[in-house]
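Lay summary

Proteins are chains of building blocks that fold into shapes. Our project writes down both the chain and a compact code for its shape. Here are two examples, one after the other.
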Amino acid sequence: MNFKLKKPNLKNIKPDRIVKFFDAKNKTELFDFIKKFLNSEYIYWDEFRFKEPLPEGVSREELWLAIKFFRESQNLKSIITNTNGKNFTWTKLDYFEEFFHELDMSTGGELFVERAGVDKVNKQKLITRGIMEEAIASSQLEGAATSRQAAKQMLREGRKPKNESEQMIVNSYISMKAIEEKYKNADLSMDLILEFHNLITKDTLDSTGAKPRLRKKGESIYVSDKMTGDIYHEGPDMNFVNKELLKLIKFANNESEENKFIHPIIKAIMIHFWIGYLHPFTDGNGRIARQLFYWYLIKQGYWAFVYLPISKVIKLSPKQYIMAYIYSEQDDNNMTYFVDYNVKKIKLALRDFKNYVKKQSIGNTKMKRMSETKYNLNIRQVQLLQYLHGDPDERTNLTIHMNINQVAKMTASNDLKNLVKKGFLIPKKQGRNVYYYGAKKIKSLF
């Protein structure tokens, strides 16, 4: 059963009723109320119908019609169309400009990392953290049934995945690394899209038990609720999809016939939406949509986005993520719902990252000073204790310590044995390996 948004009955409201708002005694109150839903609260009728209090002398339906009228007057046409040839539209909300300026100053020049005094080694660790968190959360959004803790441990130890959920996470991680290291300057092409898709779906199966691939002509695909069976979206026919993918590629390479400037953040979100709408593959559409979002931003110079795991924030509100698509498709192709949702998630991810860096910087400075002066620890040992601090499930072993620090076996062994001797590590033999866990004494350094 196709999911349909509930819509208000606006048929009996005469258009001149909205014109009369301009002559109403309380017109200031009316327009202040309406303005709120043109910018700060860009919500649909299903939420608006519960908003209180309303201005006097006007019905809720009349207010909604006025909001729709003003929204449509502000809409900008995008290059993206639905199967009926109708363009999706979007609006520049008031808060975009100020936030995009902050992003332009931060995520290109990376000032929020530099100002925190993060050194080169820790910058790379923050990048690795961001890529890991994004790979895990993006896969979990698509159904990977693995805990964040277990997934991080698997990636850090380089362990082979045990099941398809872990394979999804490893694939997403490898793909994100490839974007940062290999593809950040590449132009988008159909071959590159297929290459990205192969990376994220390696050794996994789609719902039919086959290797995920590009859909064939006449082959249907649905986005549905597994609990209720409601169908949220049906992927368009592949004749339409193939034509649109060519348009998307030109758009992503800034070769589109439409020469109007669109901020890179908005363009990246549009690419994300476009892939989600087309659903060109039998599986992996959500992951590749978010991967292309990152690819585009990194290519445009916003390379510090690798620090920001947006999917981790989206995962906290997966239903809202789905609804942002639904509102955009079913409320007259108004893509502002999806743009607004994603911009707000980027804001949250940036805020969370800044708080994390600040907290780590304060704690690490104190810890580094005490570690070096009181216990005579080297930088490799200090960084290991920083990593183990506060999480009893984190661990390392000889091979991991060697690989992370690019040191010889003897050097790595001496590092670990010294930390055991000083009471900072607890060795535990598990099978053929000896793993080292953080001891309670580490907390005394912070």
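And here is the second example, written the same way.
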Amino acid sequence: MSLRKVFELWWPLAGSWVLMGIELPIVSAVMARLADPEIHLAAYGGVVFPLALIIESPVIMLLVASTALSKDWTSYVFLRRFMSQLACALTVLHVLVAFTPLYDVIVVDIIGVPEGIREPARIGLMLMTPWTAAIAVRRFQQGVLIRYGRTQLIGVGTALRLIVNMTILGVGLYWESAPGIVVATVAVSIGVLTEAIFVNIQVQPLLARMRADPHDSEVPLTMERLLKFYIPLAMTSLLALLALPIGSAALSRMPRALDSLAVWPVMAGLSFTLRSLGLAFQEVVVTLIDQPGAILILRRFALRLALITSSLLCIIAASPLGRMWFGDIAGLSPELTELGASAIWLAIFLPGLSAIESFYQGRLVQRHQTKSITEAVAIALVASASILVVGTYYGQITGLYVSVLGVSVGLICQTLWLFYRSTSSPLPLSS
């Protein structure tokens, strides 16, 4: 066990996360160069993307579940059936939200989105229908690749997704006549479908090897065991992603609502690109933590990663790179560029906290103490929502600043609770 071994397993996953992270800025940059950029950016970043993520949130943790539980062919088949049923149910939910009056209840009555972006957002959500099922297949099969140490294939698949995405975005940018929300959602949907197909093909030789191995786990996987492990993880994703529509609702009710909604996806893309380096670390912890001496090595790696990633965001905030990101790369107007660049300072700690968070979450997943992770995310959601409520009622601070501050405070609270749970109850897996 060494830092080098951790790095060799981590960097392909990190590369894949970074490629996913830059997808949102690229999509935002194309929409910013098409007609009515503020409207379509706000529709995608304030409505379509948050709602699509909320609907797919229960399948996000299939990566963790597959990595931790796909130990033999019988367990894999059991998990695959669960994944298929979950993906079908959530796709039906997506259709109900996008194609029925339920959309108006959520977007108009609950979130309170400005009228001008409601219909573009509805079209975008319709075009995102394949999103959830593709994510489910992709993340489930990626868990098998991680378990067999084939993390390089995950990076290749994400690169392929990004190439397809950028090709469609380029065609839309060349034609210029297609609405930005249509170009963006078609590109994202087809890109994810392409990646899911690639990963499913690449995992087949590993599945053949798994099927040929006669040794099954001593403790068979049952629905009761799976639900006890997975429901807290699914709730974790749901609670974490609930912050997105809550943030959109708050932004819609604070000063400079349209500006904040337009800048938010670009800001989130920058933050997520650096945070992704830390988020990729969780599966590394789950895979390696059973090895002798792993905890000290993994903790040291997490701290170094936290320092590097937050320092990078600090450099971006303190240099012209911040304005280059929002202005030259994302294509925002000078006024929106200034707004976004000044908000970076409130997100400085997010990348570093993500690395530390992944270390403690990985320890808890390995012990099957997934309930503690749900508790941490619930605490983060309450803390973040409290900031947003205060900012909404005060009504004197630009919404983007309040939203970024809320995310930062929430993640600080979440990491502290994970630290407490991880160190106060070091129970072995068998318990």
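What can we say about the second shape? The two ends are 25 Å apart (CA to CA).
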